[in-house]
Amino acid sequence: QAKLAGRNRFCFFTARMNEEAEARLRLESELRRAVGTEQLFLHFQPLVHVDSGHVAGVEALLRWNNPELGSVPPDRFIPQAETCGLIVPIGRDVLWQACQTAKPWLECGHPELLLCVNVSPRQFQDGGFLDDVAQILRETGFPAANLELEITEGLLLRERGDIDGLLHGLHAMGVKLAIDDFGTGYSSLSYLERYPFHTLKIDRSFMVGMLERHERKVLVDTIVAMATGLGLKVIAEGVETVEQLARLKAIGCDIAQGYLFSRPVPAEQVLALLETPFGTEPAITKPPAVLH
Ligand code: C2E
Ligand code: MG
Ligand code: MG
Ligand code: MG
Fold first, then answer.
1. What's residue 219's pLDDT?
2. Which parts of the sequence belong to the EAL domain (predicted)?
3. 184 CB contacts (<8 Å, ≥6 apart)?
4. Which of 288, 285, 258 is nearest to 276 (CA)?
């Protein structure tokens, strides 16, 4: 009896594992076919100066709309693309598209606008990364100084390769570097000293309960103070309420990003966002009318 039950359970798990493996393969083959098509496109989310309400920059965020699978969130397909290596061509397209799309915004009266693009560890392993970046900047005419590459801190631990050389190479090209999702995963404070980072992005998980939980408050205060002391620009991700914003302002966090201001939007809506500063006082903060 027990043996039989055991075997059945084994069969059950195997069947489910097969299903999962099949779903993964399906996702992968669909993704492979999506590369270079309009199934993959970018949305942009504003990064807002907490004092003036002006848009300091935009983060490019990849979207995948598949005719069969519907809209697949990046948290599902990016890890998969990393595992199978597809992230290398995808990441190159993302950077090219982002630079190409954002260049006219700089020329339309926003020369200081920062374009933030996420970069995945696998793109670093691929030996041609520095050349790719240089080539894309050349081809699109996008200024290096307006480009900020966001790197998750996990990368720095996991990747062997010549991370030092790579990051210093990017820095030498004039490209800015941001440490993304700071405070999650494998934080090592020594990275902040070792690598030429310009910006630190506090992970959005820290915004949750930031006003209620003493410990969390202390952590956010401390991260902001530390980053500021090191001469880094600080961006808080995932800001959803005016109370969080007020607190961030009070502790000297420069820039905020989150649904409070705007969700990621299609490229066509970006210029309108750049024209009108957001309110940053509790009473007047509301998303610009054009979006709704
Ligand atoms: P991330 O780089 O940390 O990007 C911020 C994520 O937080 C985005 O999710 C954004 O939509 C979301 N977000 C922004 N404000 C708020 C808020 O107020 N509340 C909440 N709950 N969420 C907010 P998204 O677009 O789903 O992207 C998820 C992750 O996928 C990104 O996290 C990034 O790690 C990765 N990703 C997205 N696009 C790319 C890409 O082009 N290349 C690579 N390598 N990774 C990408
Ligand atoms: Mg990011
Ligand atoms: Mg992040
Ligand atoms: Mg993230």
1. 94
2. 24-278
3. 153, 203, 205
4. 288
Beta-strand relationship, 114-119 and 147-152: parallel
User: In the prediction, which pLDDT does 273 show?
Assistant: 95
Distance (Å, whole) CA 279 – CA 275 = 13
The answer to whether ipTM exceeds 0.90 is yes
pTM of the complete model: 0.92
Ligand 2 mean position to 125 CA, how many Å?
A: 19
161: nearest Cα among 124, 216, 198, 214: 124
Here the tokens at position 182 are 């700071």
Residue 73 CA, chain-centre distance (Å), reads 13
Q: Which of 122, 182, 119 lies closest to 148, judged by CA?
A: 119
**What's the count of helices (H) and strands (E) in the chain, helices before strands?**
11, 10
Rounded distance, CA 225 to CA 228, Å?
Answer: 5
The answer to whether 128 and 190 are in contact (CB under 8 A) is: no
Q: What is the pLDDT of residue 292?
A: 45
Q: Which of 234, 159, 165 is nearest to 194 (CA)?
A: 165
Coil/strand/helix, residue 150: strand
Residues found in the chain: 292
pLDDT < 70 regions, the chain: 1-13, 154-161, 186-187, 283-292
Closest Cα to atom 23 of ligand 1: 238
- In ligand 1, the atom with minimum distance to the C-alpha of 152 is 34
pLDDT of residue 124: 82
